[in-house]
Write a structure and sequence with these properties.
mainly beta
């Protein structure tokens, strides 16, 4: 049984930083494409970041490019999202997600992700 458990959310002022972590179990983590997806209040899910096997490739939407970074530690079965210069529009529940993919695969299509964590709240005050 695949489990993804996020941590690291919280309340931060605009311009601040947070680092989210997602610990995975019950899967061969190194063969999973991992991503972060968020759901702002009253809105649909949004793709935030993705990382391929071994961190070979990463992908971000323009809204977070240059501010967010994604990384993975396959020895710890953990994926991270470093969020810098946070803005109020980044307020959302952030979900860790993954799917078993090929070595260089990535996707920004949230419907492709099969396994999901329970989410962690990130609130950015102005």
């Amino acid at each position: 049984q695949v489990q993804l458990v996020e941590s690291g959310g919280g309340l931060v002022q605009a311009g601040g930083s947070l680092r989210l972590s997602c610990a995975a179990s019950g899967l061969t983590f190194s063969t999973y494409v991992m991503g972060w997806v968020r759901r702002p209040p009253g809105k649909e899910r949004e793709f935030v970041a993705a990382i391929s096997w071994g961190g070979r490739r990463t992908n971000f939407p323009d809204s977070v490019k240059g501010r967010f970074a994604i990384s993975r530690d396959d020895a710890k079965n953990t994926v991270y999202l470093q969020m810098n210069n946070l803005q109020p529009e980044d307020t959302a529940v952030y979900y860790c997600a993954g799917y078993r993919g090929g070595a260089y695969q990535l996707t920004n299509d949230v419907s492709k992700y099969v396994d999901w964590g329970q989410g962690t709240q990130v609130t950015v005050s102005s």
